[in-house]
């Protein structure tokens, strides 16, 4: 039993290390959430995307914002650009796989929106191209990346990069889930602290 128990302890140690590294960058998480809340308050939408194993996470993020699980929290406009295989396949076939998110963003995104890209290693060309496209449109850009951040983590067009410092893809995914849950919670906090422009106009 001891070898198996040792594997369990090592697995938790990896997660604890990555979690503590993110906790050390708590200010970065707060700044990202504050900027996201400001965009939502001004009528912006959240456009989320990720390829491969990150695609379900993009859908998860969108659902968190559109349909809050906590009663009384504000529903916010969010869409996953990774959710429609027909659209993804059509764009990839016509323009290449790196265009699958950028092409959608050119049609859907505006300067007041938020583009959030997820990548387990920071090396997803489609996510990088999508974030660059969103930045050129004036949208707020947020990246959740793993490992050393890769090209996405080093990209100047990304305004907020939140890093899951681990080479273990399972650990990266778990830390990223925690990160986007924190973003949702903090966005709600910031929105509750400051009324929307529409609410202020009714006073």
Structure, explained:
This protein has 203 residues and is an alpha/beta fold. The chain is 57% helix and 13% strand. It is built from nine helices and five strands; from the N terminus they run ααβαβααβαβαβαα. It has helices spanning 2-23, 26-41, 55-66, 85-95, 102-108, 125-137, 150-154, 169-193, 197-201; strands spanning 46-50, 78-80, 114-119, 140-146, 160-164. The chain has a five-stranded parallel sheet, sandwiched between helices. α6 links the parallel β3 and β4 (140-146). It is globular. The N and C termini lie far apart (66 Å).
List keywords for this structure.
203 residues, 5-stranded parallel sheet, globular, disordered C terminus
Overall pLDDT level: 92
Query: Over all CA atoms, what is the radius of gyration?
Result: 17 Å
Shape: globular
* Beta-strand percentage range: 5-15%
Strand order of the largest sheet: 2-1-3-4-5
Low-confidence stretches: 199-203
Structural class: alpha/beta
Total E-strand runs: 5
Order of helices and strands: HHEHEHHEHEHEHH
Short description:
This protein is of the alpha/beta class and 203 residues long.
SSE inventory with pairings:
Elements: H1 2-23, H2 26-41, E1 46-50, H3 55-66, E2 78-80, H4 85-95, H5 102-108, E3 114-119, H6 125-137, E4 140-146, H7 150-154, E5 160-164, H8 169-193, H9 197-201
Parallel strand pairs: 1-2, 1-3, 3-4, 4-5
Helix pairs in contact: 1-8, 2-8, 3-8, 5-6
């Amino acid at each position: 039993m001891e070898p198996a128990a040792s594997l369990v302890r090592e697995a938790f140690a990896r997660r604890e290390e990555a979690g503590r590294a993110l906790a050390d960058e708590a200010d970065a998480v707060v700044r990202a959430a504050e900027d996201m809340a400001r965009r939502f308050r001004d009528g912006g939408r959240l456009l989320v995307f990720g390829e491969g194993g990150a695609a379900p996470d993009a859908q998860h993020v969108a659902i968190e914002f559109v349909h809050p699980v906590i009663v009384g929290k504000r529903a916010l406009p969010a869409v996953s650009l990774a959710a429609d295989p027909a659209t993804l396949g059509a764009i990839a076939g016509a323009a290449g796989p790196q265009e699958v998110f950028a092409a959608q963003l050119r049609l859907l995104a505006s300067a007041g929106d938020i583009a959030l890209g997820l990548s387990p290693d920071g090396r997803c060309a489609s996510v990088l191209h999508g974030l660059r496209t969103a930045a050129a449109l004036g949208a707020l850009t947020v990246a959740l990346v793993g490992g050393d951040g890769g090209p996405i983590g080093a990209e100047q067009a990304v305004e907020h990069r939140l890093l899951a410092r681990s080479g273990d893809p399972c650990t990266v995914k778990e830390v990223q889930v925690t990160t986007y849950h924190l973003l949702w919670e903090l966005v709600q906090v910031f929105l509750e602290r400051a009324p929307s422009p529409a609410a202020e106009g009714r006073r």
